[in-house]
Amino acid sequence: MLRLGIVGAGAMAEYHAKRFAGIGGMRVAAVCDHLRERALGFAEERGLAAFDDPAEMAASGEVDAIAVASFDGWHKAPVLAALDRGLPVFCEKPLAREYGEAEEMAAAAASSGVPAVVNFSKRNGGLLSLARRAIAGGELGGGLRLELSYLQSWLLQDSWGAWRSNARWKWRLSESLSTHGALGDLGSHLLDAALLLAGEGLAARAFSGRRFRDESPPAGGPFFEPEGGGAFEGFEARLASSSTTAALAADWRAAGKMDSFSVRAEGDSGSLEIDLERSRDSIVIRRGGAARELRAGPVPSTYERFTAVAAGSADPLPEEPIDFARGLAVQRLIADCASLSRAAPGTSDVLLRGDIASKARHY
Fold first, then answer.
1. Three-class SS of residue 81?
2. Contact 102, 94 (CB under 8 A)
3. Residue 90 to residue 108: CA distance in whole angstroms
4. What is the pTM of this model?
5. For residue 259, what are the domain limits?
6. Which of 191, 184, 178 is nearest to 238 (CA)?
7. Distance (Å, rounded) from C-alpha 8 to C-alpha 150?
8. Helix (H, G, I), strand (E, B) or coil at 316
9. Boundary residue ending a domain (61, 86, 114)
10. Could you tell me if residue 304 is inside a domain?
11. Are residues 85 and 144 in the same domain?
12. Per-residue CA distances from 195 to 149, 339, 350 (Å)
């Protein structure tokens, strides 16, 4: 039985604890948070050991593996502390705040020889895996064109929490705390999916984003000024390789979209669609005017895959990597998109327009 230590004591840490508790062979044993009182509260509720220093937890002998569920800028230290002790690591996406940090973490993972996994959770459920196999099997023909979008509306309503006062949301709006806001948060899922479906070789060609501004504070309330300025709350990007083009869109102000993730892939002889609002277990393939629905069979989740490799077994889905090398590839695309924004600051005033933009809203 592997003993897991979780870094972080917020909502994502609670979700990690829930998911790993349901997997045989893994037991949550400890929690670490830089705010000791939060760690103690999380630990007392679940009967865990509590720490406020990730290096201390890694060296304590209380854990055999570590899951990192803290803010983006707090990934590096616990990851390196765990790898230095030879402990397998399960890290939230994106791998880090900055590409240089992610590069250091990936190098440490490679030299340590222990499993290190990134939680690209949109892999769970099997739809992306089914789509990858359909594309690789020639269902769509050549000339692959991808459209991917991830739309939420938590900046328009408080059903997930009051974002002006809730730390779970406030840090995502800060350029100095988040990985460029929605670009790292939602974009990491979109970029990972694009790489999974198209293979290696994608490069960022165009990027346009809108940064957060608190233009409508509560009546009588103050404006909210994020630390380090506003991060991207919405963006569009264009990627390309020698054989594929990909258009990406993400937004935290998409009216009517609670948590909408969709993918459209089109080739010379067919297309496929994933729409989690329509179905969480099937994709639609269209060829020659006819449509058919394919249901995804069960695939091991990211949590189950990590448990397997941490215990010394083979990855049950090795053809769809979620290791730190994949995390670094996604981080490079995030960094390249951000660089395009800095190189052409005028493009940040208006988002790119195209077919995929109509799925979100008009800017």
1. helix
2. yes
3. 14
4. 0.94
5. 125-299+321-359
6. 191
7. 25
8. coil
9. 114
10. no
11. no
12. 14, 19, 26
**Assigned domain for 143 exists:** yes
- Asked whether residue 356 carries a pLDDT value surpassing 80, the answer given is no
| Secondary structure class of 12 (helix, strand, coil) | helix
Query: How many residues in total does the chain contain?
Result: 363
For residues 249 and 279, state if they share a domain: yes
Residue in 43, 36, 45 with CA at minimum distance from that of residue 63: 43
Residues 97 and 162 in one domain: no
Interatomic CA distance for residues 145 and 267, integer angstroms: 6
Amino acid at 141: G
Residue 25 C-beta-side C-alpha neighbours within 13 Å: 12
The two three-digit tokens of residue 13, written as one number: 């840490």
Q: Where residue 239 sits, what CATH number does that domain have?
A: 3.30.360.10
Q: Is the dihedral of CA 165, 168, 170, 171 positive or negative?
A: positive
Token pair listed for 120: 């690209």
pLDDT for the residue numbered 344: 58
Half-sphere exposure of 90 (CA within 13 A, CB side): 32
Instruction: Summarize pLDDT for 241-267 with one digit per residue, the tens.
Output: 999 999 999 999 999 999 999 999 999
How many CA atoms lie less than 13 Å away from 126 in the CB half-sphere? 12
pLDDT digits (tens, 9 = 90+) for 193-209: 999 999 989 999 999 99
Instruction: Return the CA Rg of the chain.
Output: 20
